[in-house]
Amino acid sequence: MVGNAVFRVEGLRKSFGHNEVLGGVSLELHAGEVTVLMGANGAGKSTLVKIISGVYERGGGTMVLADQDFAPKTPAEAIRAGVVTVHQNINDGVVADLDVATNLTLDRLSGSGAPTLFNPMRVRREAKAVADRMGLAIDLKARVSDLSLADRQMVAIARALAHKPKVLILDEPTSSLSSAEADRLFALIDRLREQGVAILYISHRMSDIRRLADRIVSMRDGIISGIFDKKPLDYEGAVNAMLGRKIHLDRIVVRDSANAVFKIDGLRIAQGARPISLTLGDGEVVAITGLVGVGKTALAETLFGVRQPLAGTMTLNGRPYAPETAGEAIAAGVFLVAKDRGENGIVGGFNIQENISLPFHKRMSRFAVLKRRLERATARRQIEELGIVCRSEKDEMSELSGGNQQKVMVARWMAQHARLFILDEPFQGVDISARRDIAAKLRASANGRATLLFVTELDEALETADRILVMSEQTIVGEHRNADVDLDRLLAEVAGGPLHSAA
Amino acid sequence: MTLRDHAIRYGFIVLLFGLVAYFSIAADGFVSPQSAVFIFQSVAITGVLALGVTATLVVGGFDLSIGSVATSAMMAAAYVMVVLEQNALVAVVVCLLIGAIVGLINGWLIVYMRVPDLLATLGMMFLLVGLQRIPTEGRSIATGMTMPDGSVANGKFSDAFLALGRHRFDFFIPNLIPVSVVVLLVLAVLIWFFLEYTRFGRMMYAVGSNERAAELAGAPVKAYKIWAYVISGVFASIGGILLAARLGRGDIASGNNLLLDAVAAALIGYAVLGAAKPNAFGTAIGALFVGILLQGLTMMNAPYYTQDFIKGVVLVVALVFTFALSGRGRR
């Protein structure tokens, strides 16, 4: 096998500051094969891709392309050498205001040897050659901004392929495509595979992976945690290697709740998705787990009023609950710690105290004037409660570590009593000790409300929840009491296929 | 705190005091109540506009239409009193309504029509500059003017209205402080209190810093943004009222510098006390700073045509303070 590897990476390392993102990654790509790379958020996939495509400089290790040393300093260099990457954001790959023909030949407009004058006839002729080779049936005169996402994606890939690459890297290419659109992409990938291109395909979608993969490589915490190339491919094994499964030191004492606090009945969050029904009890911590893109955040946002469900009803404390804005949800006692705190949580211009009080200004003011003493006292209490490491409640958020920033986000929403407390990926970018602190705090304070966590990593669910629900394809597909969990069944549900006996 | 932190925080205030000290020695008569009042009076109208635009800066927007809102209000006041022969109260109400309506339209364009703030308010500026000329076919408005239809406008500015520009309150010295300065000080305190101490002001800052986070904290982000533009429009129309009262006529040629001066004051305000963000106190100091500098230089016989250049220099220095020296600007 080693002999016919077109592209080989060995012992690749990369650190940002003290944070080691890649800890010696070795990977081989073979001609005419689709290698799927799986990994949870923060596993180091995108760093790996960016090093291969010349965006980042590597920290150590070697890369070999067709028996020659490969060390691109810029993306352009990598492309010239024959390693072409189509990035996740489709619009990075095309210029929306130009027509398809110009987009397909864009890379010939600059660089040495490019003609000074723009000749539309020649451009169209060259573009037609590129399109024909790919079997691309799109009007070359159409403006890219008028095309569907799938067509734009095709143009971006076609543009990449105009360089006749040896290696093609596709970073989550189906994340914004419908299944019919994805089928067209798969047909194209099949064609490229036959032409002998080595393809690295990054995705979370099990349906894509089942359709395309010749090999699966799982990544976790900056290293390759599993390589699967024996047919039939062991999909559950790959998911397991990606999500990891460590022995837990502190097993939790599982509680069962009799008092229902929150009920969902027949909720549909996406077109064509099966309805969701579930009940959350008082004092119970429930984790919903599933791969990226299965609708966890959509469900969280639906419960919080930021998104509207297509169908179904919700009941909170026996009363109908149908929030139309986040404000209504908060007033009803449903709080959400949104995922990606930098984007959705932290107000950068505010210090810790002001960040904590943000949702509860109304309750903390008289005649619209904020009670600053109450605000400060609340912040101090919450800093104490969650063990936030800081000098004072006046510290800037940017001075805190990731774990402490996340604690502030959780502290913000624990400052007032919640009926339903939702946390979306609360442990993302959080060190292990902060994660333990937050989980312990959640469990200790769980009485009097229902707590719902959305996590991708299985470990996090196993460490914190009384019950674990599995989500796949925008719906709930499995339920487990977190005591003697049948992990094989759980992983099979996460992987989205029927349970097949481990050989 | 390091020396650098101190420099960022107090640098501009020190500079202000240094300037005052220098002019006190170098320019005869700079230190006198009359001179101080003159400085305040010279920045009163720009100051009011600057305080309004600060509100839009706080929510992460910008309002380029303030200058033209002020001149439109001025023309409207003149039209209401001179042509329509109404009293001062009607004139003031019409002006405030114009400010509020323009603010609402700006907010609507930005929030619902998704026009970028700079472009929406630029368009509005153009529109108003043109609109204010239509009723009189491009002529200034004064008592006795001939209307497009040949009739003569016989109304006049009411005394009550003119008093807004000419009356002076006693303050230790008789007839010292003009109404416009009082209006500036009152509005400055109001908007400062509103932004710093009320929950609405706090949420406006949150909207400006991280809109998504504010929305997920339950804030009606769109309403906050629209209100910011309404505040800006109303403040600008108050500036226009003061301008009309000072001039005593509807002069199409005046008010050209209002926008740039006001924006400069608000941006200079970023540097005051190392705030690195829009703030009412800073805006007021920024306006004052420009006023003191110009007054001092004028008393030292600097030619009038150097004024814009000097304002520009001050603005650029203040922006360097804000963005290069303080870490917060870098985000």
From TrEMBL, chain A:
Matching InterPro entries: AAA+_ATPase (IPR003593), ABC_carbohydrate_import_ATPase (IPR050107), ABC_transporter-like_ATP-bd (IPR003439), ABC_transporter-like_CS (IPR017871), P-loop_NTPase (IPR027417)
Question: In the UniProt record, does the keyword Transferase occur?
Answer: no
Q: Which UniProt keywords apply?
A: ATP-binding, Nucleotide-binding, Repeat, Sugar transport, Transport
Q: What is this protein called?
A: ABC transporter related protein
* Pfam families to which the protein is assigned, alphabetical: ABC_tran
Q: Which organism is it from?
A: Mesorhizobium ciceri biovar biserrulae (strain HAMBI 2942 / LMG 23838 / WSM1271)
Domain ABC transporter, residue spans:
7-246, 247-498
Give TM segment ranges.
none
- Which GO MF term does the entry hold, naming one? ATP binding
CDD domains reported in the protein's UniProt record = ABC_Carb_Monos_I (cd03216), ABC_Carb_Monos_II (cd03215)
Family that this chain belongs to: Belongs to the ABC transporter superfamily.
Keyword Aminoacyl-tRNA synthetase appears in the UniProt entry: no
Q: Which SMART domains match?
A: AAA
- Classification lineage: Bacteria, Pseudomonadati, Pseudomonadota, Alphaproteobacteria, Hyphomicrobiales
TrEMBL record, chain B:
Entry GO terms, CC:
plasma membrane
Main localization is membrane
Give the residue spans that cross the bilayer: 7-25, 37-59, 66-84, 90-111, 118-135, 171-195, 226-245, 257-273, 280-297, 309-327
Query: Does the record carry Transmembrane helix as a key word?
Result: yes
- Membrane topology value: Multi-pass membrane protein
Q: Per UniProt, which keywords does this protein have?
A: Cell membrane, Membrane, Transmembrane, Transmembrane helix
Its annotated compartments are: Cell membrane
Q: Does the keyword RNA-binding apply?
A: no
Name of the featured protein: ABC transporter permease
